[in-house]
Design goal:
158 residues; 4 helices; Restriction Endonuclease; two-stranded antiparallel ribbon; alpha/beta
């Protein structure tokens, strides 16, 4: 599929000594509309798993385009421990870790993956991108509304 430009893989971030990590890459179609059609997603309703997958897909696509367009040589990857903790996007050598949640209010339980990641990579910049309209910091984690995230990504970068 990659040879036909139908999609792309996001590799697992595996540079760790402390945890056993999932190492399989994730696959994303080049267009969320193609994924929605193939999965028979007729209507995306906020709060559903399908909406969450589409929301994540959108942010991953934007990150990939930004890295390419800005000619940033850092790799886009994801991180997942076998215990289930995960971070949806890792930029470079753990320079930035991004959790993507299609929630309208970020709660402490949404931060668990980033906190676990930070224990292994304390120098990482930690972000959660969501539909929560209130931008704020919770400890070392910055909560950013999706549209503000996109604006910042393209104006100042991350």
């Amino acid at each position: 599929m990659k040879d036909n430009l139908l999609g792309f893989r996001v590799p697992a971030y595996t540079k760790t000594m402390k945890r056993r990590l999932v190492q399989a890459p994730r696959f994303y179609y080049f267009d969320i509309g193609v994924a929605n059609h193939l999965l028979h997603r007729k209507e995306l309703v906020r709060g559903t798993a399908e909406y969450g997958h589409a929301f994540e897909h959108l942010v991953i696509q934007e990150l990939r385009v930004w890295l390419s367009y800005k000619e940033i040589t850092e790799e886009l990857s994801y991180w997942r421990a076998y215990t289930g903790q995960e971070v949806d996007a890792v930029i470079g050598d753990a320079r930035v870790a991004i959790e993507i949640k299609s929630v309208e209010e970020v709660l402490p339980r949404h931060l668990k993956g980033l906190k676990t990641f930070a224990s292994d990579y304390p120098e990482s910049k930690l972000l959660i991108v969501s539909l929560d309209p209130i931008n704020r910091k919770t400890g070392d984690i910055e909560c950013v509304y999706i549209l503000d995230f996109f604006k910042r990504l393209w104006s100042e970068g991350i």
